[in-house]
Predict the 3D structure of the following.
Amino acid sequence: MSKKISISEETLRQLYEVEGLSRAKIAKIYDCTIWAVRKLMKEYGIEPRRREEQRRRCNLPKETLRQLYAEMSAPEIGKICNCSKHSVYRLMEKYGIERRTKAQAKLMNSRRKPCDLTFDERAYFKGMAIGDLTVYLLRKSSSTLIVSCHSTKQEMMDLVKHLFSPYGACSIWQDSRQIYIRCLLDAESWWWLYEAWEKKAFEEEDLKDVHSFFKAAAGYIDAEGSFGVYDGRARFQLASQDAEVIFQLYHGFRRQGIEFPEPRVIMPAGFVHGYGGVNRKDVWRLSTANKAALCKLIVKVGPLLRLPKRISNAKAAATNLLEREKTTWKPLPRDCRKELEKLLKELGRRE
């Protein structure tokens, strides 16, 4: 009897279709049998690759291969292309790309810098990883932790590279649909990030400390949240299948005096999208248009946001709150209004 595994459709598609990992590699990552992975793929409607696609030749363009090889090893490139390292070496020879010497390879591996983030700095990375990244090992004994992401937005790729490139090689490439990034980190010192991603929730220590809580919230909001102005009113919302995270943030905000309506399900499990995809879990929404709550939220989280679009939208929401002060009978608390005006100047400098 195959071992039952818990892996979301989004993550399985990321590993199999985007990352190009085989069912055997995915089974190693989750410590289960290939049959368990096959069964889950069938449940999610993920089509297996044809036999001729299982091991194909490396066919990367010359400049793409040159860029990847500057940051990665041939076996690691082979994992991306779903081919052998020998196929990568043959293509390098064809393009006239010189192979590294053993000394150069050793020097490249030493570029992986151990994590030196403080406790509260790690909270932002956890929020980002839980919300929008894939974190895994190619094999259980590997000393390299892989952080990957794909998006249609270049600014998200730039942010991920900015976060992780000081600690290891990051490579970016794209196809006709999306942009991809993969970063190689020291597994031992970054293991906490893998644990947070796998658990899909924050630790109690992250939530109890005020500084780490708001940094965790900022990371998750950069990944999954949005500020905006709709029908002349500022609004904030988070929509996600990560129910535990949604409720952790809801209770955390309330502890800090930021009142939110209780989260609610906006798409139930089993919901069929127009493109044919089916929700495996309920989609929860945490949102508010309350002026006082928005003011406090933007003041606390705004300085910690790192995604340019999120910063710009938070600035637009803050501007809307201040403009509505002139026409509404219910003003913002004075101290909050002053903090909002101060923050707007700071956000303006960061854009």
In short: The chain has a mean pLDDT of 86. The chain has three domains: 9-109, 119-198, 200-350. The radius of gyration is 22 Å. The first strand starts at residue 134 and ends at 136.
